[in-house]
Specification:
Layout: E1 3-7, E2 11-12, E3 18-25, E4 34-39, E5 45-51, E6 58-60, E7 68-73, E8 78-83, E9 92-98, H1 101-105, E10 112-113, E11 117-121
Parallel strand pairs: 2-11
Antiparallel strand pairs: 1-3, 3-8, 4-5, 4-9, 5-6, 7-8, 9-10, 9-11
């Protein structure tokens, strides 16, 4: 079973940067695509970013393009989300997701979720 544990969430001010980390287990990271999703207060969960199973292609939601970068470390079994120039609209619980590589690269969630990590952007 694919397992994900997110970390790195924090309270930051607008314009600051933050890196979220997703530690994976139960599968080989180079066999599956992995995505990040988020749920803002009062909103549905939405796609943020994904990296394909080959680690070659990355995908981003329009509002985070140019600000967020997804990457992975095969040796550490981690998938990171570097977030720059954070704004109030980035406040959300961020989730790591996998299981269904085709769905994830189509910006849809796979079967397995982590517990989430809270990111709050506030002045």
């Amino acid at each position: 079973q694919l397992q994900f544990v997110e970390s790195g969430g924090a309270l930051v001010e607008p314009g600051e940067s933050l890196t979220l980390s997703c530690t994976t287990s139960g599968f080989k990271l180079d066999y599956y695509s992995v995505g990040w999703f988020r749920r803002a207060p009062g909103k549905d969960r939405e796609f943020v970013a994904a990296i394909d199973w080959r680690g070659i292609n990355t995908y981003y939601e329009d509002s985070v393009k140019g600000r967020f970068t997804i990457s992975r470390d095969i040796a550490k079994n981690t998938v990171d989300l570097q977030m720059n120039a954070l704004n109030l609209e980035d406040t959300a619980v961020y989730y790591c997701n996998g299981g269904g590589s085709t769905r994830i690269t189509a910006r849809k969630p796979g079967e397995y979720w982590g517990q989430g990590t809270q990111v709050t952007v506030s002045s």
